[in-house]
Amino acid sequence: DQQVKQNSPSLSVQEGRISILNCDYTNSMFDYFLWYKKYPAEGPTFLISISSIKDKNEDGRFTVFLNKSAKHLSLHIVPSQPGDSAVYFCAASAGGSQGNLIFGKGTKLSVKP
Amino acid sequence: ETGVTQSPTHLIKTRGQQVTLRCSSQSGHNTVSWYQQALGQGPQFIFQYYREEENGRGNFPPRFSGLQFPNYSSELNVNALELDDSALYLCASSWMAGGADTQYFGPGTRLTVL
User: Fold this and answer.
1) How distant is the Cα of B17 from the closest Cα of chain A, in angstroms?
2) Do A44 and B105 touch (CB under 8 A)?
3) Is residue B78 within a helix (H) or strand (E), and if so which, with residue range?
4) Strand partners, B45
5) Pick from A22, A103, B55, B62: most CB atoms within 10 A?
6) B69-90, pLDDT tens digit by residue?
7) CA–CA distances in Å: residue B99 to residues A33, A44, A76, B43, B76
């Protein structure tokens, strides 16, 4: 049973517009959430994280929103750039930032010029 | 500063064989985690090593085993290979006190079991 779900396998967005990637989780013990970006032939790279005590974290063009009651988080990229085209993984931990990570299946984002 | 490296890049084995994958951690990191990423799936945690001791394990059978060496590099060993073991194997190194958001992944080893 998948504890972290990314229900959209792919997303296509025009350059300059907003990209919104969604993630749902089922385990109420998760208290730390991360987003990773993965280019082909490379390992995932950390993008942004959020603790369950917050509902928003922002880093430049990237913002993560957490809705604990809905067990839902989203990653907003504004404005989207062609270099953002990659697979984005949502991950969650039940041990804070030190815990083992449970990953979703990923969403492939394509940003078209 | 050297990043995380993994060898080999690709590997083909037959069912029942044994395989060893290697990972060199980023300079200054003392923790290595291994993940299995099957096609179309997200990475799945196999286990983590901290200072040469196993420090957490995911839902993988004992035929998946590992080692960490004094220089913090690591090996993943898989015995009695099965077809479902075909996947990308990722290692990630980190500084234990740093947390998951300071975990750096290598490019992975693509294992094909025939």
Assistant:
1) 26
2) yes
3) strand B74-78
4) B35
5) A103
6) 998 999 999 999 999 999 999 9
7) 12, 16, 23, 18, 22
